[in-house]
Amino acid sequence: MSVTRATHRVWRLGADIDTDLLAPGHAMKHGIDVIAKHCLEAIRPDFASGVAPGDVLVAGPNFGIGSSREQAAAVLVQLGVAAVIAPSYSGLYFRNAFNVGLLLLTCAEAETLSEGDQIALDTGSPEIVAPGARRLACEPVPGFLMDMVRAGGLLNQLRQRAARTAFTKAPDA
Amino acid sequence: MSPSAATRMPSRTAPQTLAQKLIARASGRAHVAVGEIVTCGVDLAMFHDSSGPRRLKPMLEELGAQIWDRSRIVLVMDHYVPERDDDSRRIVRIARDWARDQQLPHVYDSQGICHVVVPQHGHIRPGMLCVGGDSHSPTGGAFGAYMFGVGSTEMLGVVVTGEIWLRVPETIRMWWDGALPAGVTAKDMMLHMIGRFGMNGGRYQAVEFAGPAVAALSMQERMTLSNMSAELGAQAGLIAPDETTAAFLEGAGAPRADMARWFTDEDADFTRHRFDAAMLEPHIAAPHSPANSHGVSRYAGTRVDVAYIGACTGAKLDDLRAAAQVLRGHKVAPGIRLIVAPASIQDQEQARAEGVLQALMDAGAELFPTACGACSGYGDPMGDDITVISTTARNFKGRMGSPTAQVYLGSPYTVAAAALRGRVTDPREVLA
Questions:
Q1: What are the backbone dihedrals phi and psi of residue B157, each rounded to the nearest 5 degrees, phi first?
Q2: Where are the beta strands (DSSP E) in A32-114?
Q3: Which of A71, A92, B193, B357 sees the fewest Cβ atoms within 10 Å?
Q4: What is the pLDDT of residues B172-225, one digit of tens each?
Q5: Confidence of residue B2 (pLDDT cuts 50, 70, 90)
Q6: How far apart are CA B16 and CA B31, in angstroms?
Q7: What is the ipTM of this complex?
Q8: CA of A51, closest CA in chain B: separation in Å?
Q9: A75 lies in a domain?
């Protein structure tokens, strides 16, 4: 029912992909469109120019370790990446990703996927449908975070809220 | 629960960890359970020129939203200062203009790095729940506050609503027995723990540092532990407040805080790890991960080109004092660049008054601005193919500017000893 019709092409990365690889410090003074051109340049120089909308990143454990810079998640949204699939994430990166509307799936078997695989995502379960109809279970994503991704991130949710009611100053805590 | 168990229930609430107590207070509850998702009121929101105004201002304007409480915001210009090009001038100007337009009461412009400057002005106190727009925000945990890093969009949510969600974390307690030997520091403790547990060993839970060796640490050394909780993958790095905390806060001009309630109940549920400080040797993390950490002897003799003493992690007053203890009366080895970028103006001026700065300059140090600088590859990046030994927190590939640079991490003693000899050296060999 919530299986994506499109298949997604896998870009396969290793473990410990850090935020400096995703959004290099030297590019951080620029806007997201420029930072995106440098995404993963130190380990996959073919990525930023070769990635197509709907592709997914599949990585080893500890994806997104390092800095709080949310550009490290926003670059993947900018490049049209549909989701990241890994066995574990930096907690800070996990929050940032959902806040900018990037779906992260935590999948113990992520590393059984290979470069170039075509996969489908069932965001309801959530599950990954791998080649040969092999189904890989993912950890549940809390409902409010799925809502955030569907809305395109926290900023969009705040926009919707602002449209409903003007923000007022909260009473002193 | 059986009736007999109920009659034995103590009148106080169930035992809780320090993390649970802090989150319970912030969420207006008597008790929170591990794994619960709760909404907390934010006591302090800190951000800097890179993560703050340049991202927040346009989003706030678009929403037509106001800051929920200006008195709870602290803005620090530390990443793109001093300005070097049109881009950094533009970013810092946005921060300065916004601070003025919003009439922010707490702004520290070019005074040093946020994680050091904000506590030095007494903003972070026991019992608070704080967020920072920077991954090293767990530094605030050294004061018995629950402090963690968030990205700019999440910070926007805080700035507009004054609230943030949290999953109540498990607590992983790192208990350090014994006393650190001379020349061994909090940085070595952290490199040891990160080497053992890995960069996600903290699993985004709360790590708590305790035991006699932690109690004996100065406030700034405790800040180094909490600071590098980020590299341990913890959400927060807590230390229960005590007399050392109280004395630091009094010196910082902070109002007196209730400290007695902020500790972990011994009968609370948490994971326990024990270490012996007396057995710890100086540690080095080799390229390209803080978790690639071993005793200094493994890398002894490795040639270095640049020794960097900088960052919130490694250039506070106590770090500068440690480096000076190694270098006083000596010169750095020929061909070695020793760069010192103090973590705050306050620390730099105290180091100057104590003769610590002069000892470093006499040894051949170049004094760099009190800013994040080379640590994050902003400012003045390191060149290609060079070997750097650094007091900073991260040695990811390309972090300091060049993907071909080899960056080793060590304590200020270890970095100073490498500057002296031109190669990785156990600092205990050169400490008289």
A1: -60, -40
A2: 56-58, 83-86, 103-106
A3: B357
A4: 999 999 999 999 999 999 999 999 999 999 999 999 999 999 999 999 999 999
A5: very low
A6: 8
A7: 0.88
A8: 22
A9: yes
The domain ranges of chain B are 16-280, 287-429
Average pLDDT over residues B20-35: 97
What percent of chain B has pLDDT above 70?
Answer: 96
Q: Are A169 and B376 an interchain contact pair (Cβ–Cβ within 8 Å)?
A: no
Comparing alpha-carbon positions, the chain B residue that sits nearest to A92 is: B150
The label of the residue with tokens 């168990």 reads: B5
Residue of A nearest to B235 (CA): A91
> 3-state class of B253 per DSSP?
coil
pLDDT at A4: 63
The CATH number for B287-429, chosen from 3.40.50.300, 3.30.450.20, 3.30.499.10, 3.20.20.30, is 3.30.499.10
CATH code for position A116: 3.20.19.10
Distance from CA of B432 to the nearest CA of A (A): 37
- Taking an 8 Å cut-off on Cβ atoms, the answer to whether A65 and B156 are in contact is no
CA distance B126 to B138: 13
Long-range pairs of B5-9 with CB within 8 A, sequence gap ≥ 24 = none
In the predicted model, residues of chain A with pLDDT beneath 70 are: 1-5, 165-173
Q: Which of B51, B69, B151 sits opposite A95 (nearest CB)?
A: B151
Burial of B352 (0-12, 13-18, 19+ CB in 10 A): middle
A25 touching B (Cβ < 8 Å): yes
A132 to chain B, minimum CA–CA distance in Å? 33
Element containing residue B7 per DSSP (H, E): helix B3-8
Other beta carbons within 10 angstroms of residue B248's beta carbon come to 21
Q: Give the span between the Cα atoms of B419 and B365, in whole angstroms.
A: 9
- Read off the DSSP letter of residue B180: P
How far apart, in Å, do the first and last CA atoms of chain A sit? 45
Q: What is the pTM of this model?
A: 0.93
Are A129 and A122 within 8 A, CB to CB?
Answer: yes
